[in-house]
């Protein structure tokens, strides 16, 4: 192997030095957006594979289908950034990275198919490293224990087993908290840390400004997204009503589909939620999403086309009639109409939504984050009210617009106030 000088102290901030110096069994990094934790871990994966010729990695996510465009792409980019890409072979079928001269491999698996994890066989060295990325998605602690137990065998002198966990801490109810962060219950030989955007010197000024603005405008979301702290513990509007699952389009092929569209620009995202609804079982499947700041009208139209929105009904925020007209008349977006609004329409729409369960595809990251941070407001005495806070709700508003087709419309007409009141009563809300 040619000599490669990879100085981690020049590659990552001091917050991530323990990744390269610690032999602890577990390294757990919760952090904010833009904290650089995923990129730093990818550097560790590459360096460990080059430094220790006994090391093989398992890169783990809850959903295997999310790996190719996330962890695999990041590791490939890091290898090129470090100037060592020629030392590796990158394949997508199977999804693997192989060190050419030794045969060491970086495997990619999903917890949604655990049998493929336990069947891993290395050709050189041992499976002795795990990187669990976005591991807030992980649902089953015993299943994780089983995966950890699959790392076995005698390592060379000085060798060690190690698992790295990186995630955004959307809720303090997740098992990751007691497993790695609570002093009384965390596993032995654990190093845990919290990192923020301040630990990443490669962010541009506009991105940092947006994060810092969130501290004032959206403190619940900023708790996680900016400060890397544990998320909301109580008061969630849709608590217990949503889950994340990687489902295929064949599962929802025969269900009616509709798109909700909420407009934003600089600080707020434009959010389009693509949903299918099962009225009999009262389940909403959210299968795709557009969620982006700074979108101009033409960019919205192009994104809708790319996401195969044309041909489906699109219900858009009626407060932006100009944008709706531009999308229709200038950019040819079909089947788009303004959302119905009126007295108490928001709280009525939320009440109706609470009579459904929501299955959210991993593509819909914005909605997933909002569901985890959308809370009821408190009064001046600190008591919960029945009114949600007007924050963390752009994707949720989008979904509410689309669901109104199945709740508050008679034919093509949005119901008046009294009709909506009766509709809410009719389902016992």
TrEMBL record:
Transmembrane segment boundaries: none
Xref: InterPro entries: P-loop_NTPase, Phage_terminase_lsu, Terminase_L_C, Terminase_L_N, Viral_DNA_packaging_terminase
Sequence ranges assigned to domain Phage terminase large subunit N-terminal in this UniProt record: 26-229
Pfam families membership: Terminase_3 (PF04466), Terminase_3C (PF17288)
Domain Phage terminase large subunit C-terminal: 262-403
Domain of life: Bacteria
Protein's recorded name: Phage terminase large subunit
Native source species: Ligilactobacillus salitolerans
Gene field: xtmB
């Amino acid at each position: 192997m040619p000599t490669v000088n990879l100085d981690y102290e020049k590659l990552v901030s001091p917050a991530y030095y323990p990744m390269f110096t610690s032999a602890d069994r577990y390294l757990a990094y919760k952090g904010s957006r833009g904290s650089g934790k995923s990129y730093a871990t990818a550097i560790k994966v590459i360096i460990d594979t080059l430094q220790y010729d006994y090391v093989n990695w398992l890169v783990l996510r809850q959903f295997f289908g999310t790996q190719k465009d996330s962890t695999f792409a990041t590791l490939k980019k890091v290898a090129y950034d470090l100037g060592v890409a020629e030392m590796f072979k990158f394949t997508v079928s199977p999804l693997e990275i192989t060190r050419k001269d030794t045969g060491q491999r970086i495997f990619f698996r999903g917890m949604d198919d655990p049998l493929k994890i336990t069947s891993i066989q290395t050709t050189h060295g041992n499976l002795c490293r795990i990187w669990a990325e976005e591991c807030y998605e992980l649902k089953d602690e015993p299943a994780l224990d089983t995966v950890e137990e699959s790392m076995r065998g005698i390592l060379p002198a000085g060798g060690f087993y190690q698992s790295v966990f990186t995630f955004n801490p959307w809720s303090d109810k997740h098992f990751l908290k007691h497993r790695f962060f609570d002093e009384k219950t965390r596993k032995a030989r654990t190093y845990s840390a919290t990192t923020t955007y301040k630990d990443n010197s490669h962010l541009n000024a506009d991105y940092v400004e947006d994060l810092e603005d969130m501290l004032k405008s959206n403190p619940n979301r900023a708790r996680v997204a900016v400060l890397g702290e544990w998320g909301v513990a109580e008061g969630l509007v849709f608590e217990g009503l949503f889950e994340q699952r990687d489902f295929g389009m064949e599962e929802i092929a025969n269900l009616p589909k509709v798109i909700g569209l909420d407009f934003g620009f600089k600080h707020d995202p434009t959010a389009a939620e693509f949903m299918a609804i099962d009225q009999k079982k009262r389940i909403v499947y959210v299968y795709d999403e557009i969620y982006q700041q700074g979108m101009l009208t033409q960019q919205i139209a192009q994104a809708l086309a790319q996401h195969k929105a044309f041909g489906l009904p699109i219900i858009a925020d009626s407060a932006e009639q100009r944008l709706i007209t531009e999308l229709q008349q200038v950019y040819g977006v079909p089947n788009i109409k303004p959302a119905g609004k009126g007295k108490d329409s928001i709280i009525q729409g939320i009440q109706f939504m609470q009579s459904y369960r929501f299955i959210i595809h991993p593509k819909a990251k914005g909605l997933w984050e909002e569901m985890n941070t959308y809370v009821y407001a408190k009064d001046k005495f600190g008591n919960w009210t029945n009114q949600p806070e007007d924050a963390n709700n752009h994707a949720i508003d989008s979904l509410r617009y689309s669901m109104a087709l199945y709740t508050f419309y008679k034919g093509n007409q949005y119901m008046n106030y009294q009709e909506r009141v009766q509709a809410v009563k009719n389902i016992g809300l």
